[in-house]
Structure formats: structure tokens, C-alpha cells
Specification:
The protein is α/β, with parallel strands linked by helices and about 280 residues long. The chain has helices at about 15-25, 40-50, 65-75, 110-120, 140-150, 155-160, 165-180, 185-190, 215-225, 230-240, 240-255, 260-270, and strands spanning about 5-10, 30-35, 55-60, 80-85, 100-105. Strand 3 (about 55-60), helix 3 and strand 4 (about 80-85) form a beta-alpha-beta unit. It is globular, with a radius of gyration of 20 Å.
Length: about 280
């Protein structure tokens, strides 16, 4: 029986590098990329929610700092294999323990990285995961969350997954609990920076190839939405009426080619409209 695919997380402070590497690895047989991040706090959340077996970290100029951060991370969210991409020589000794560490120079290229992952995959070992399984997003929950993020309603999700409407609502409740969210927009906003979701347009819905420029107020509303603020909270923060917020949200949806706040956050993240700060 063929071995199960290896789950991989990618981390790079450089968004373009991280996304390109994640997309490339996702095309490889035997690998499943569970997400990609830019900040350490995001990586910690990704590892807690998806529990990858391997972690690929771009450590171009900060190798020792990267080792320190990942060493702390693996005490809370163990991974089996860490590959650090760097041409530097570390001043720190690589940690000794259940996690295997490897430094791979950039000059070795993609082929060497794939070979390293393949070697590890064929000789992978189980590692005791102290992180509670209950905190992990299941594959079905990721499916539901991705559909929520693309703007599908609960009945539409139920139809696509061939499950009951109540099952969809139960999945959503569990997702909210795991993410500490209270709404669809809050849930999508929580995972958008983690690269977990691949936001796609709704069926029959045209998504603009290039987005029109957003006004300053639309950007403010978008950022507050990403923080999980309600319409009333946004209105209070900006000193405007809730009705004005709703009107500007409608205009924002039209510009982004979506029909919901959750979908708007997904598109905004994909186009770099939401700050990583």
C-alpha cells in the first residue's frame, strides 16, 4: 500500500518566495502543502491547526534567529522534519531530539529540496504530538471553510459536499470554536494569513483579473473586517453610521466581485490588500 502523502508547511518572510515555493511543492506527488506563512505567530497558528509533518523555512539572512524560533515552536507543535533554506553557516548547534533538522543551501536548487523531502518521506517516523488533536482542523473542516471563504451559502455547501444542512452548521460551529471566531468573516480572516485556503470564485461568478483601486475608507473597513469587527463596531471605530458601513461594504463587494464579507476577505488577502501586521 502506498504511503500517505507528507504534509508540509512553508515559511518565508518574503511573501512571493513563500507562495512560489508552496505552489511548486503542491504540484509534487506525495506532498500536501497545508499552508504558508510570513510571521512566526502565523506559523505557530498554522502548525497548531494543521499539524504538518515537515516544515520548510526560508532562512536567507537570519539562520540563527530562524533556528531559535522553530526550536521553540517544535516544543509546542512537534514536526518530524525541518528543512532550513540558507547559504549561511549557523552559529547555533542544530537541536537534537525527535525532530530531524537539515540545512539546505539555496545553491542546491529545487531538485535537492524535493530529494530531501522524498528521502524523509520514505523513512518517516512517527512523532508523539503533544498538541491536542481536538485543536486540529480536519480535512472536511478545511473544505467547508474554503467554501465559506468563496462565498457559498450553507445550502450550497451541503449540496456540493452531499451532506445535510445541519452537518454544515455543525462543522462551522466547530471551526469557529477552534479559531476563536464568532462569524464566517472572522473565521476566514483568522486563517487567511496562514495560506490554508485557496480562495476561488463562486461558480458562474466573474472575478476581475486586476482589482480596481479601493478608497481610503474602503481600505479602513476592509482592515477592520479582517479583525472580526461587526458593522456596528466598524461604524463606532470610524465615527460613521452603521447604514453607511453597509453601503460601503456593498460597494466593496462589487469591486472585489464577491457577495459576502468572508469572500471579500479571501480575495483581499490573495491580492495583498490586507496587511500582514
Amino acid at each position: 500500500m502506498a504511503a500517505a502523502p507528507m504534509t508540509v508547511a512553508v515559511h518565508s518572510k518574503r511573501r512571493l518566495v513563500g507562495e512560489a515555493l508552496a505552489w511548486c511543492l503542491a504540484t509534487q506527488t506525495g506532498l500536501i502543502v497545508v499552508g504558508h506563512t510570513q510571521q512566526w505567530v502565523q506559523l505557530a497558528s498554522l502548525c497548531r491547526l494543521r499539524q504538518p509533518e515537515a516544515l520548510i523555512a526560508d532562512a536567507s539572512t537570519e539562520l540563527d534567529e530562524t533556528i531559535r524560533h522553530i526550536r521553540r515552536l517544535t516544543t509546542r507543535c512537534p514536526v518530524s522534519y525541518v528543512v532550513l533554506l540558507s547559504d549561511q553557516v549557523p552559529q547555533l548547534a542544530l537541536p537534537i531530539g525527535p525532530t530531524a533538522w537539515r540545512i539546505l543551501p539555496h545553491s542546491r536548487g529545487l531538485g535537492a529540496l524535493l530529494a530531501a523531502l522524498n528521502d524523509r518521506s520514505t523513512a518517516r517516523c512517527d512523532i508523539t504530538r503533544t498538541a491536542a488533536r481536538a485543536a486540529r482542523l480536519t480535512e472536511r473542516e478545511v473544505e467547508v471553510l474554503a467554501m465559506v471563504g468563496s462565498g457559498l451559502t450553507a445550502p450550497e455547501i451541503a449540496n456540493r459536499l452531499d451532506i445535510g444542512h445541519r452537518s454544515v452548521e455543525n462543522h462551522k460551529r466547530r471551526i469557529y470554536a477552534k479559531l476563536g471566531a464568532h462569524s464566517q468573516a472572522g473565521a476566514v480572516g483568522a486563517v487567511a494569513p496562514l495560506g490554508i485556503l485557496d480562495i476561488q470564485p463562486r461558480e458562474g461568478e466573474a472575478r476581475p483579473a486586476s482589482l480596481p483601486e479601493l478608497s481610503r475608507r474602503e481600505n479602513e473597513i476592509l482592515l477592520l473586517s479582517a479583525q472580526g469587527a461587526s458593522v456596528r463596531q466598524i461604524a463606532n471605530s470610524l465615527g460613521i453610521a452603521p447604514k453607511t458601513v453597509e453601503t460601503q461594504l456593498s460597494a466593496l463587494y462589487r469591486k472585489l466581485g464577491v457577495h459576502s464579507r468572508a469572500a471579500a476577505l479571501g480575495v483581499a488577502r490573495a491580492h495583498g490588500l490586507i496587511s500582514e501586521a
